[in-house]
Amino acid sequence: MHLKIAVIGAGNVGAMVASRVIDADLADVVLVDIVPGMAKGKALDISDVRPLVNSSANIIGTENFEDMKGSDIVVITAGLARKPGMSRDDLLKKNSAITKEVSSQVKKYCPSSIVIVVTNPLDVMSYLVMKTTGFDPKKVIGMAGVLDSARFTNALRVRNQNIDQDNVLMMGSHGDTMVPINRSENISEELFSETSELTRNRGAEIVRHLGTGSAYFAPSASVFFMLKAIIKNEKKTMCVSAYLEGQYSEKDIYIGVPAILGVSGVDKIVEIELTEKEKQAFKESARQIREGITHIL
Ligand code: TXD
Question: How far is the CA of 213 from the centre of ligand 1 (A)?
Answer without folding.
Answer: 10
